[in-house]
Amino acid sequence: MNADQVRAHIDPIRHEYAEARSLILPALKFAQTEKGHLTREDLEAVGEATGFSAAYVESVASFYDRLYLAPTGARVVSVCVTLSCMLRGADEVWDHLCEREGVSHHGGTSEDGRITIQEAQCLGYCDRAPCIQADAEETKGPFTPGSAAAFVDALRAAPDPHEFWR
Amino acid sequence: MPILNSVYRHREAGHVLTELVAYRAAGGFAAIEQSIGEMEPDDLLYVFHRSGLRGRGGAGFPMGRKASFLPKDAKLAKYVVCNADESEPGTFKDREIIEMNPFQLIEGMVLAGYAIGADRGYIYIRGEYEHQARVLDAALIAAREAGFLGDNILRSDFSYDITLYRGAGAYICGEETGLLESLEGKRGQPRLKPPFPAVAGLYSSPTLINNVETLSALPPIVTQGADWYAALGPEKSPGTKIFSVSGHVQRPGNYEVVLGETTLRELIYEHAGGLREGHQVKAVWVGGSSVPVLGAMHLDTPLDYESLNAAGTFLGSGGCIVMDDSGCIVRATLRLASFYRHESCGKCTPCREGTNWMERILQRMVDGEGRMEDLELLESLFGRISGKVLCALADGAVAPVASAIKMFREDFVAAVTDGGTPRPAPMSVVEVR
Amino acid sequence: MADYAPVDLAADNLVTFELNGRTVSAPAGTMLVDAAYAAGVEIPIFCYEPRLGPPIGACRMCLVEIEGMRGLQTACSTPVTEDMVVRTNSPMAKDAQDGVLEMLLAQHPLDCPVCDKGGECPLQDRTFKFGPGKSRFIEPKRHFPKPIELSSRIALDRERCISCFRCVRFSQDVAQDGQLTMQERGARSEITTFTGDAYEARFSGNITDICPVGALTSIPYRFVARPWDITNTPSVCGSCPVGCNTELTTRDGELKRITGRDTPNVAVEEGWLCDKGRWGYDIAMSPNRLSAPVVREAVGDRTVSIEDGVAAAASLLTGRRVGILLGGAVTLEEAGIALDLATNGTLDNAVVARLGVASGNCAPVRAATGAQLGDIDAADLVVIVGGDPAAQQPIVELRVRKARRFGARVIGCGARPHALESLGDFTRTAPGHLADGMMGLADAISNAARPVVLWDEADLASDPGAIAALTALLAASPHATQLMLGADVNGVGLSALGVSTTGLFEAIAADEVDAVICVHADPLEAAGSIAWQAVFDGFRGPVIAIATYASAMTERADLVLPALTMWEQEGTLVSMTHRAQRLRPGAAGPAQAAAGWELLIAIAHHLGHPPAYRTAASAFTHTVASHPAFFGMTTDLIGTDGVVIGAWPADDVSPAAIVADPDHLVLVATRDTFGDDMTARSHALRTAVSAPVLRMHPATAQALWLNEHDHAVLISDVGSSSALPVLCDARVAEGLIVGPLGAPGSPIEGALSRNQHQAIVRVERT
Ligand SMILES: Cc1cc2nc3c(=O)[nH]c(=O)nc-3n(C[C@H](O)[C@H](O)[C@H](O)COP(=O)(O)O)c2cc1C
Ligand code: SF4
Ligand code: FES
User: How many CB atoms lie within 10 A of CB A4?
Assistant: First the structure.
């Protein structure tokens, strides 16, 4: 994404903030919608559009779990592993998905590049524990290892989203 | 078992109120009509104050009092910030309010803004709630079109709008000054206090920060009166509170109760459907995970701020996580310790290093590499982390660990002597449709 | 570094409070850590560094007990109040200190024996003083490939980092270069730059001074010395007219390191140095350093001993009418001796002049109250008239940024665009029209409570209208103070001694001189080099060069006497803020070289006129006694912090004014301290060098049929420049060309007249 595209997104909301720095996070989230992660060029574009150094923009981005500084799969699947989900089988779901996707128990991207699975901290869906989130848009539960695998398969088969909100 | 569904209109109506007409039909916006341009802002503030409403985000600070700390004569802009970061483990009540009843939050924010003379309101919503953010986006547009937001609200002199700000995945941005830093486009690292946000908050301007549930309680307080609200429940803990119940219960979900009138046992067994046959309560984190854990002997504690304090814990966010006797307290504690290690912002030494250290020791215990002296080591760390830092995250990290070791010491000793703890079978669940 | 802020115990708003049972006082609002330190109680700190801005309270090392307050408080962020009762050594406070240190050391590699910071490391010192006996952390520590090069000058060892945020705050808030940041979160936090790029910034070295552990260290100093085999000497930097206070670290007679002082000079640099002042000293070891006298004879060059060299100098001068040309960086002592020899009968009626930018008749401006750099901090309005401070007087940049951070407005006008313009509102003026730009500043100055006006010596001197306008502007506000952005390192000192930029050239041309001594001066590489070349071409007498490095003049001279550098000799320099400060030697220098003052004294001896002084100190005493601006000054008075000299009557002649008009292009020269000859020869600064370019507005370039990177020469009345690449910069006024003064090989000096920094030029593409 280039600086003009970022500007086109943030200029209409500029007036809502007393300081331009506030635009960095919205700009980063928007820039990420293009590829699903942030490249060096994206960070530079956000820096240019907001008036801050690319280094600063990167340091902000790196603070947040849901801004990705390295490439991800077409879909990012977050498996909640916090206490409520754990009590209802999150670890079993996690282990099963890691094994099926062929990634280490720390998570990672499947070989076909379709799916990144990652551990998530409490997603606020403990009433549907154990829950899984696809990007940041769709959160579901409760899952068993089997139903979780089916959910991931459906994601794998589905067309890529238009914009990546993760 | 009294159930009260009169504060949050979607619960009263029994269905979602995401359409503006539906919200109006359920009595929505009456509070705005009654107060904006009709009441002196100070009088409105006094209504909040008299209601006795306490913050529902975790700390339980009286809302009206906090609002009264904002300097009255300041030439600086003033802001209302709604904390919708809801990341406390076990808490999902704000999600429900936003998903089902976004206008009540908006209405509450307009009332708060009017009372303090704010220029703008911000809703800081956690990045993982993208769906909820879209619901709010739509509601904000509808409210603006209907004249409840924007210039000269209901043709009064009061102009005020709300900006929705999406977070990007960081629990610490729920801490109020971490939130403000994040909203200012920085890393969400908490600030030194004082100055408190009421004096120097967003952009160094006076700022009122409240939780979704707190702000959403304001409209009925206006329409039904402060006295009505103050009369619900005990004097120091009036009103209703939504408890999010999860874990080893049959019917996890949100339950709104009048404070002081329901016990923990009733919440678990009557509202949340109780445990599986043949199981007993082992541990309960009643106010989210950042509070000391309770055991079966605490089940008859009434749910209100004072009674829970007396039982040695906090009401917190109302995220009530229940573990029955099939669970392993050492593993549960480790899981929470991992959460705090993952979420520590890294600014304060004791929190950055201490959360990491606690997790590593607990991990060794679970893995069968624990030593007897590790328990004393852990215990000696608590006081060196808790209270030694800028914000309450570290206290929240210590509380569940310290209390678990105190209450269930024998389980930790067994983890050392037995060479670790096996992973227990989880509660089986009904698959998603 | 000095971690604690100085405390003024003579202030009139003192409060009294109890500290560990003692009653002590400090001005209200003083942070407890500073107040305690002033009272002799050290509260340990890591993240606190008052020069970086408000405290952040991150490391938690300074926790103390304050009666009436719940828990412990961070003393770095708690201002003292009347009757406060503080305990820094109670069991609770001790346990907290112990605890924080244990946490800090948990992941620390404890590799002190191989760490450059070892022996002068706050973490090490405080661990001994306040820390736990042993670590209880048995888990594997975090590992990074160690260490990495943050730049060619700074090594980063992430394992040693304690996340105190000091370096990040320096980069983001003080230098505002934006490059150094904290990345990731929590226990994974680490210091880094954008995607790991090099940290290339002009003040980057300061992070090695403020890092309280061995995480950020100077690469040139890696493994070079240990604290117990070094000596530290307070001195000043002679790389530019600012005169930052430095500390020279010497081992075995060799200069190994330059740092800011332990106790920074708050009136000058506040402990910050630019990278050139910190690392540029390695040019003293560069190949073109002169290390032995050379006698140039028909049969060839002859290297002789320093004694023979001095004797040869004396015999060349005997019976001749002598001219002495001083460089802009010669010390007061050297200039004072030259003047003395010229008048005391040693070198009968010698003509003494200096090389450099003519300072013109700026006396009316200087008559307004003068400010020190430290005064900029408190200004509510900073006005910059002309100049290019960030390039020419680097440390000024940090002061202006600091004032801006504190809320000051920054405004100004001038012909050359510069880095500080982004801090406020600036008007571009055409050369010779500074007065126009100043009209727009009057209101702001008269409305300000504490305005400080920074004005460029060279720009003002060559613009008589501007001198009058600025004088009037300063008179318009009773609160206004002024600070000159000087052109030459010791320009003020030389000017106060009455040494002018004129006289000698004319005397040579008129055949009134038949021997010339150049002291740290190379007219063949200076502005007006073509004219100088011409007079020297016709000059038949001997030329003696007292110099440190080989240059055009040392090639031309009949006798070269190698001189010591500013790091090797004693002497006094007067900064642009009129502050006399002492150079003290931190290295021995080549055996067959000597300080300029020593050489001049030795020559006098050989001429049979032993002067009344033999040492730099006695030469100083002799010099100050005969020049009114220095009356009463002693080396004691100068001390380590320097002292502001008095007024002096004489002013230099003004150079001819160059006034821009639409039909002509004007060259304005700027000396970028990082683009000069010295930087170019430093190994340590090899990645910091700014390349010489001709900067011009794109429209100007277009009108000249030039594209960016094309090479062009400038041709003036007096001569022409070498070819230099074109750089388009829309901030430069149309019709103006900004060229590099003092760049290696003196590319533009040929197009300038003597002592001028501006010229009307034609441009030709090459
Ligand atoms: C680590 C940490 C996380 C927090 N997270 C949240 C949160 O997600 N939502 C929230 O409303 N308050 C949270 N809080 C509490 C806020 O700091 C603050 O007290 C609250 O937003 C005030 O609103 P209230 O008075 O309406 O409760 C958190 C506090 C801490 C220390
Ligand atoms: S206590 Fe932890 S989370 Fe809070 S500011 Fe300090 S380091 Fe950050
Ligand atoms: S613990 Fe998983 S959603 Fe809350």
Answer: 11
